[in-house]
Design a protein that fits this description.
Elements lengths: L12 H12 L8 E8 L4 H5 L7 E8 L4 E8 L4 E7 L9 H5 L8 H9 L8 E7 L14 E8 L15 E6 L5 E6 L37 E3 L2 E4 L2 E8 L3 E11 L4 E17 L11 E2 L1 H5 L19 E8 L5 E23 L4 E18 L2 E10 L4 E9 L4 E2 L9 E5 L2 E4 L1 E11 L5 E11 L12 E8 L16 E10 L5 E8 L12 H5 L7 E5 L21 H4 L9 E13 L9 E12 L14 H4 L8
Antiparallel strand pairs: 1-2, 2-3, 3-4, 5-6, 6-7, 7-8, 9-10, 10-11, 11-12, 12-13, 13-14, 13-23, 15-16, 16-17, 17-18, 18-19, 19-30, 20-22, 21-22, 23-29, 24-25, 24-26, 24-29, 26-27, 27-30, 28-29
Bound molecules: nickel (II) ion.
Nickel (II) ion binds next to β23.
């Protein structure tokens, strides 16, 4: 089978079906394999860059349902064979859909029924069960050999009720995901189940007057072109990929530079590698909560369909994404990726007093976005390409905060009261972006640049002098960096083998937003498991097998995988192919205004050319009078 697909394109439905049938025919994948995910195996970067033909291969993760063993396989689509099968010893694949929906088996357990009955809940009560990854657990539960998960409970009597408004407090069931067997029950103090189902959309709610229409009209269509997964716009070119765990994967990002006449690479691959949401409430109900939404659940698998006029405005192109379900059938997420252009205010401007004239250019952006739903939370991922060579990455966080039932008169010690009956535990949302930047070639280096006050002295008599301090990140043991908003710290990725017209090494800089890092103590389980989140930046030497900040299989993993192990050999990072892993996120001290659905919060960062060009690359943007017919820009 020879594929017509580009080597970097996601697997199409035919390829997915082929992979499934090859795996089904191979007994090494177990007697009853349930497919957790299948994705394009990372193609050989060096071979692709050298222009060699690279065959399509698939990464497969299954759970043998007869034993609960997780198994990985690699399928060679060209040769139509299962090339490699590896049972995971003591490691566990991420949670499958079926394990998510199969949680209600715990209701058959008499002890669980008794614990619910103590809280006034019987079989006539409509419950919403919310399964969670284990986090960490008692070794006696056997998590090293069996697939374990946690189940929590909410009362949801009507469809319009907010599923998370009526938590059943202090009851957590740990169950074997394969057999459904209840392994342990955390059954603490009985707290009355909150009574208010506060619907997000309530037909009885008085709505404010509707705004007048705002219509985005692109009468001649958009200015980008989309051919298959290849997207081109204003000199930018990239391929839009998608992965079951990472969601959006942007590949081979290049810029066609009229000044040098060259198509110049900026990045080979960029994605969310991992994320973690550690909760800061030490009660047994919440102590274990720090879900890895990428590696344990799947940002891509849980992407939601987007709708025109609501998620995206204007002329929209969508990409459908295809995922395999447990039984090996192919499910299509229609409109999973939205591509559109938007106006973003002023790009550059200058008023010249001598001539009383203003030159102003408006900024247009190309936006590639996707939304994921993970239980109570919804995350939006936006990659925004601009005419000045910058790429802004924005994550939107919305949905419903995790709330716990407040016992009468009790002040929450580790959270904020958000409604008469509820408190929201403090928590963090920390994302790890894996950025395989290749600035004008693969051989790059990272420099940390701070702006500092120079020491006072004869050369600095008034103490006003400012200098930049440059720290070369020479090897992996030096690659863990923290941001400094005070110093305006940025990380420059330079290619010292290519100069701009000023004779400077070309570069891009990573401009982090002021962002938290993991706050939990060094010795905590989450610090071991989510070590990536303890620094704003990690730098590693490129290795196509090193893709996941918390390791390829964080589910039930005790920690140490991913970045801490990737840097173990302390490889050289100077003038070689390097990968940046950027942590950004938010501290969520909830507000009453976050309830019952939170206004979108934001985090992200900017990639900005820094000496990549020798002057403003957007000087050639045409005035608005030439962009929008009829516009006169008069005051
Ligand atoms: Ni939050």
């Amino acid at each position: 089978m020879t594929s017509l697909a580009h080597p970097l394109d996601p697997l199409d439905p035919t390829e997915l079906a082929t992979v499934v049938s090859l795996c089904r025919a191979d007994h090494r994948l177990g007697d009853d394999p349930r497919f957790v995910w299948i994705a394009l195996a990372e193609p050989d970067k060096a071979a692709l860059l050298a222009g060699a033909a690279v065959g399509r291969r698939a990464d497969v993760v299954v759970i043998d349902q007869t034993t609960g063993t997780s198994i990985t396989a690699e399928v060679d689509l060209e040769k139509a064979l299962v090339a490699m099968v590896t049972p995971l010893d003591g490691l566990h694949a991420s949670v499958s859909y079926e394990e998510w929906t199969g949680a209600d088996r715990v209701l058959d357990n008499p002890e669980v029924a008794a614990a619910l009955a103590l809280r006034g809940i019987d079989s006539s009560t409509r419950l919403h069960l919310e399964p969670w990854p284990l986090g960490f657990g008692d070794p006696a539960w056997g998590g090293d050999r069996r697939r374990l998960g946690r189940v929590t409970f909410f009362v949801r009597e009507h469809d319009e009720d907010t599923a998370w408004a009526r938590p059943v407090e202090n009851l957590v069931v740990i169950a074997d995901r394969v057999t459904g067997e209840v392994v342990h029950i955390i059954d603490g103090e009985v707290v009355p189940v909150p009574t208010d189902p506060i619907p997000i959309v309530d037909s009885d709610r008085r709505l404010r007057d509707a705004l007048r229409p705002l219509t985005i009209e692109q009468s001649e269509g958009p200015s980008y072109t989309l051919e298959g997964n290849e997207l081109s716009w204003e000199g930018w070119q990239l391929r839009v990929g998608f992965h079951p765990l990472e969601g959006l994967v942007l590949r081979d990002i290049t810029y066609d530079d009229p000044e040098t006449g060259r198509r110049r690479r900026v990045a080979w691959r960029a994605s969310v590698s991992e994320m973690v949401v550690p909760y800061g409430d030490p009660s047994p109900m919440n102590l274990w909560r720090h879900v890895f939404d990428a590696g344990e659940v799947g940002l891509g698998k849980n992407a939601t369909s987007l709708s025109l006029g609501c998620d995206c405005l204007g002329h929209i192109d969508y990409l459908d994404e295809h995922m395999v379900t447990e039984d090996g059938s192919v499910a299509t997420i229609a409109n999973a990726v939205c591509i559109h252009e938007e106006d973003n205010g002023v790009l550059w401007r200058h008023y010249d007093a001598a001539t009383d004239t203003t030159e102003v250019r408006r900024r247009r952006r190309l936006v590639v976005s996707s939304w994921t739903n993970l239980g109570n939370y919804d995350y939006g991922f936006y990659w925004k390409f601009s005419q000045d060579g910058s790429i802004e990455v924005e994550v939107l966080l919305s949905g419903v905060v995790l709330a716990t039932a407040l016992d009468d008169g009790v002040e929450p010690a580790h959270g904020v009261q958000i409604s008469p009956e509820l408190s929201a535990p403090h928590h963090q949302h920390l994302f790890s972006f894996r950025l395989d930047l290749d600035v004008d070639g693969v051989d790059n280096v990272v420099e940390e640049v701070d702006l500092l006050a120079a020491p006072s002295g004869p050369d600095n008599p008034m103490g006003t002098a400012l200098i930049t301090e440059h720290t070369l990140v020479a090897k992996e043991s030096e690659g863990q960096r923290r941001g400094s908003a005070v110093a305006g710290r940025a990380w420059y990725v330079r290619n010292r083998g290519v100069e701009n017209a000023l004779g400077q090494p070309v570069g891009y800089k990573v401009v982090p937003n002021a962002s938290p890092i993991l706050l939990a103590s060094e010795g905590s389980p989450v610090a071991a498991r989510a070590a990536f989140a303890s620094h704003h930046l990690w730098v590693t030497a490129y290795d196509g097998d090193q893709m996941r900040a918390a390791g390829p299989f964080p589910n039930q993993h005790p920690g140490g995988a991913g970045l801490p192990s990737y840097i173990a050999n302390d490889r050289n990072l100077v003038d070689t192919d390097i990968v940046l892993w950027l942590t950004c996120g938010t501290n969520h001290v909830a507000r009453p205004e976050d309830w019952p659905v939170m206004p979108a919060a934001r985090t992200g960062f900017i990639l900005e050319p820094a000496g990549f060009f020798a002057r403003n690359p957007a000087l050639d943007v045409r005035p608005q009078t030439e962009v929008n017919p009829g516009v006169s820009c008069r005051s």
